[in-house]
Design goal:
Length: 144
Amino acid sequence: MSQARTNARKAAVQALYQWQMAGADLSEIERQFLEEERLKDAQKSYFVEIFYGVPKNLTAIDLALSKFVDRPVDMVDPVERAILRIGVYELLHRLDMPYRVVINEAINLAKYFGADGSHKYVNGILDKVAQQERAAEIKAKGAR
């Protein structure tokens, strides 16, 4: 996985966190990120896809999460919530990306941004979502 795409995810976590907390206009947050050159080393197209894709698909994403989180999705730590939403977005909409890559990237984001141990929480939730949403892919991998 490219570093530019990883950086796009890192920026998306920060931007989605800001959107979740302040409810600011998406295009305004994107403009701030561009002006402050926070996307300099990131794959901008992927940042835009995730950053607009998560809010656009929020109902389906939060529904998938709500089956496995231990509290209402809105009560999940905001950093973890942003990371989980990105992971579920990728599991649902980026079928070209192996589920293990999606989960691994989310674990790394949680280690980078989250509280101690939050990567274990993120791993556990996304693994369950993947079992449900990517069952055919997981079964095919196991059949080899």
